[in-house]
Design goal:
alpha/beta; 5-stranded parallel sheet; 4-stranded antiparallel sheet; 15 helices; 9 strands; 14% strand; globular
Length: 313
């Protein structure tokens, strides 16, 4: 089977993530140690023991999730320095949901794990500093209707947009609080089964994140990057990031752009991928992929049992 590795984003975190794998697999322990050294504080302790309030803070969640995905991948590879070799030998492409794109770039050899973790710590700090607006999940409504409603209720200074095209019938909107409230009511009227406010600090993946995107450019422009050793599918265009210039453009722009996860999975399926392996905490992406591509084989590698079963298969 043609296989893609996929990496989760914010929202998949849980206290205890990675602990059993790090206890069982020395390569996973080594990856967490690398993360601790990269940031100068114990990412591993936060992942393993919390507290939950500290783990779910955006500036902490982002490096914690990337460290966990890369630790699981290191355990699969058997060596902290072999994650890209393992990925290129066992997958034809990689993708990540929002934050997970940094894990995908590290897996593909575009970023070192140290640089990926440092970048997402900076990304998390910048996103946490943005405190205006909010987000809501829209359940049971077609994307074209959601797009139209968001455009209709938005004004020049009071905008709401689609932030995540997650799966058929599950879309996230993001924007200024007043516009978000107008859109929520209009979407219910248009036939949405539910519109659920999300517990986030700001309007991620919307124009309200412009300042964060501009500041993130300074960090990405000074980070060493390499051409990916296998296709990394862009959140923004749902096509491969083929050059360092494309990656440097992608990462800041991603903060203010919608995550086109449905299109990403459809692109991979249309290019022959039949198996998706989610690597890291939780199984959010596995569940989304089942809705997007029901015929695909899906795995979620998040604990010792699932990791050992996959390696034995």
């Amino acid at each position: 089977m043609r296989r893609a590795f996929v990496f989760p984003g914010q929202g998949s975190q849980v206290v205890g993530m990675g602990h059993a794998i790090a206890t069982t697999f020395p390569a996973a322990r080594a990856m967490y140690q690398l993360a601790d050294e990269a940031l100068g504080w114990s990412v591993s302790e936060l992942c393993f023991n919390g507290p939950e309030a500290q783990l779910t803070a955006t500036d902490n969640t982002q490096p914690a999730l990337v460290a966990t995905s890369l630790a699981v991948l290191a355990a699969m590879a058997g060596d902290v320095n072999a994650i890209t070799t393992y990925t290129t030998s066992n997958a034809v492409a990689v993708a990540g949901h929002s934050l997970g794109e940094y894990s995908a770039l590290a897996a593909a050899g575009s970023l070192t794990p140290t640089d990926a973790i440092r970048l997402v710590r900076r990304r998390g700090e910048l996103m946490a500093a943005a405190t205006s607006g909010g987000m809501a999940a829209v359940i049971g409504l077609d994307d074209d209707i959601i797009d139209r409603v968001c455009a209709e209720v938005s004004t020049l200074d009071d905008t709401v947009v689609v932030a995540n095209y997650n799966s058929p019938g599950q879309t996230v909107i993001s924007g200024a609080s007043a516009a978000l409230a107008r859109a929520s009511e209009a979407l219910k009227t248009a036939g949405a089964k539910r519109v659920l406010p999300l517990n986030v600090s700001a309007a991620f993946h919307s124009p309200l994140m412009r300042d964060a995107a501009h500041a993130l450019t300074d960090a990405t422009d000074t980070t060493t990057m390499a051409v990916p050793r296998l296709p990394v599918i862009s959140n923004i265009t749902a096509t491969p990031l083929a050059s360092v210039a494309a990656i440097r453009s992608e990462l800041p722009a991603q903060v203010v752009s919608p995550v086109r996860w449905v299109s990403t999975i459809q692109y991979l399926v249309n290019n022959g991928v039949t198996q998706f392996v989610e690597i890291g905490a939780g199984e959010v992406l596995k569940n989304l992929i089942k809705r997007i591509a029901p015929d695909a084989v899906t795995h979620s590698i998040k604990d010792v049992a699932s990791l050992e079963a996959f390696l034995a298969s």
